[in-house]
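Dear support,

Our group has been running a series of protein-ligand predictions, and this particular one with 2-acetamido-2-deoxy-beta-D-glucopyranose is the one our PI (initials K.S.) wants archived with full inputs and outputs. We had some confusion internally about which version of the output was final, so please treat the block below as the authoritative record. The input we submitted was:
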Amino acid sequence: MLPSTAAAALAPGLVAFWLVFRRSTPTDSDSEQISLHSLRKKLPKDLTDWRTHTRYITSWNHLRRFLAGYGYKLWSFDPLSPSTPGILVPPGREYGSPSGFLYAPSQIIPRSPLSPQEDKSLSPFAQGLVPGPELGSSRIAIPRRILWPARHDHGDVVIRVLSVDGDGLRPLKILRQIATAPEALNRSNHTLPLLREIVLEDIILGVFPRVTASLAEVFVPSNVSYVAEMDMLEIFVQCLEALDFLHQNLIAHLNVTFDNFLVDFPPFSHPEARPLTGKSRVYITNLDRAISFIPSTPISERYCLGEYFFLHYPQEGQEKPEPAKETFLARKRALENAQESHKEQVAIQKVFKLKPPELVDIRSRFSPFSVDCWQFASGVLSLEPETSGDVVQPGFTLMEPVHEIFRTMASEDPTCRPSASDALTSLQNILYPA
Ligand SMILES: *[C@@H]1O[C@H](CO)[C@@H](O)[C@H](O)[C@H]1NC(C)=O
Ligand SMILES: *[C@@H]1O[C@H](CO)[C@@H](O)[C@H](O)[C@H]1NC(C)=O
Ligand SMILES: *[C@@H]1O[C@H](CO)[C@@H](O)[C@H](O)[C@H]1NC(C)=O
Ligand SMILES: *[C@@H]1O[C@H](CO)[C@@H](O)[C@H](O)[C@H]1NC(C)=O
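Confirmed final output from the archive:
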């Protein structure tokens, strides 16, 4: 049976409106219906608009009261605050209630072996340890258009705009299939759970747990020496398990970057110092680009056309900066844009890097599953040290057999790439030899 929100999504418009009105308003008063309607009018007209328009911060501010009605207090943004310029600030304490998805930064991590002698005063135990990196609060605190953090009695969450005016229903359907119970309880399923859907007329917002860090934050090349090799490989095993699970359910993600893998705590164990015990769990998120096939689709037809890929990689947030005017509003806008401009440049590189070689033009026929494999393997290989001229950039050297798995997974020829399942088995055989 479909949840009622599903029915609303399938017939956006009147049904959605009626459901929202009926379900979310304690007193069925006309004035509330009218105020929801006028709230809707203030918000972006479609998903693309929300992803690209410069005033998304204003949109989230409009939603503040509506979401408070559901118990979600949006973090606040003060672009001109002297202490935290352009940073989102949680209401109240730094951390919300425990949710099982977010852990405060580990206090200590092993010092790198080249540590200088300056700490002779410390006990022998403390000499090898330095404060852990500040993960968890920094990245989420930068406003990200369709995502906004909020505080709930049961812990911090991230609210994501999933669908507007019917757009975005494809990934939402996939989320409903794999990110809600019972499937979410499957151990090999690493999809970040969708806790709740909130409907506002034709807009569907998804509530997801806020997770400590993304792998993009953990695998910073200059930090990699802090991550033990075994930890890193175990993380890769979980990533492959996440992809394998999606692929077994005939879902391809199509935006497989370290940004879209989250961990509840970063694996900073180290054999020479007191390790953090317990294994971190990896979650895969952002199914905005995902595509699924119904089980009856013959294997020969589980393909997409280049059109799909190129159509769904809009150059996000590339609107021209507005001419600077010295008004409060202009400064606020300029700041809103500046927040994203650095990320845009990174994103542009990533879009380029996400495009596998078999995708030549809109007519290229491609297997989305082998594109996922290529994207992931390319990401892993990009962690390896790079030599430009005489300078060796910091990085993480994979042991040869592991390197070989990812190298074949990133083959130019998609038919040479092992599936996520085969790569998972090969990696497990290396890590845990019989
Ligand atoms: C996978 O896990 C998610 C999140 O926990 C859950 O919502 C979803 O139903 C699961 N899907 C499958 C196919 O097990
Ligand atoms: C968990 O998911 C896998 C892969 O889809 C499936 O083979 C297995 O049967 C599932 N287990 C349960 C208990 O549903
Ligand atoms: C990890 O990388 C981040 C970003 O480059 C940096 O701010 C942080 O200090 C690094 N942490 C360690 C322990 O090197
Ligand atoms: C891919 O995921 C990243 C990180 O979540 C996101 O910033 C980017 O916009 C996504 N790309 C596309 C084309 O959706």
